[in-house]
Each structure stands twice: as C-alpha cells, then as structure tokens.
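Friendly challenge for the regulars: who can give me the structure tokens for this chain first? No prize, just bragging rights.
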Amino acid sequence: MQFVNALIEISNSRSSISVLKSFLILQAYYDLEKEIRKIEKLQPGPDLSIIRKSTFWDVDLDSIDFRRHSTHVIKRVFERGNEDEILEIIKFYGMQDCKKVISEASSLFYAAADNAIKYLNLDKSEIKCLRNFTGTLYQKPWLRS
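First reply, four minutes later:
Bragging rights claimed.
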C-alpha cells in the first residue's frame, strides 16, 4: 500500500511517463530479486542429516535459508552444536567465513568461543566480543584468580 501511495504522490508531481518508468524499474528489480532467490534455493545447503533439529529449536530447519542467514547459523552451531555439526558448517561455509563471523561477533556464549579456538585455530585475542573497550581480554568469572 505504501508503494501505491508513493506512486500516486510521484504522479502528482511528475508526468505519467516518468511514473511509468519508475514503476518499470522497480518491477525489474523485483523480478531480478525473485530469480536470485530461486537460484539460491537450488544451491545445496549443509547436510541436514548431520544437524540436529534441537540445535535450531526455534525455527523449522527445512525453512532456513543457509546463504542469507549464514551469520546466525554459524553462531548458533558454534554455540550449541556438537563436533559433527561444527565440522559440517565449516565444510559448507569454509574456514574463512566461519572465522570472520566468530571473530567479529558482538556477543557469543563461551562455548562458541571455546569451539572457535578448538576448530578454527583462533586465539582469544582475535575474538572481538572477548575483549572490553580497552582491548583487554575478559576472563571467565569462575577462572579468575
């Protein structure tokens, strides 16, 4: 509805030809996006037989767009996944993408950081959310001495 109202406002200030051009451009972008989504759906995702439904308890595992929601998927599997799931996600997204997502995350459970250190060979200092605003590493409260 907002789109139609915007076209009406444009038509009041412009000629009908420029409104038609604007509409055709928007329609072309829409069609292009629709085709891109079709192609993305045809691309294979990770092996879903390896990933447990309990890892993604809040969503339907079959409806996840693994390309579009890669950041969420990587974080979730590193936080709550087992070894097989983590290795499958690393195989699907690649080591570099997983390292980038984990190292730039604004918040992670400690389990995700521990798994990143184990499976991605990251150092604690490379994980942004483990450092405070001064750059000093946070400590696990139960490990402080």
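The chain has two domains: 2-42, 53-143. Residues 53-143 form one domain. Your move, everyone else.
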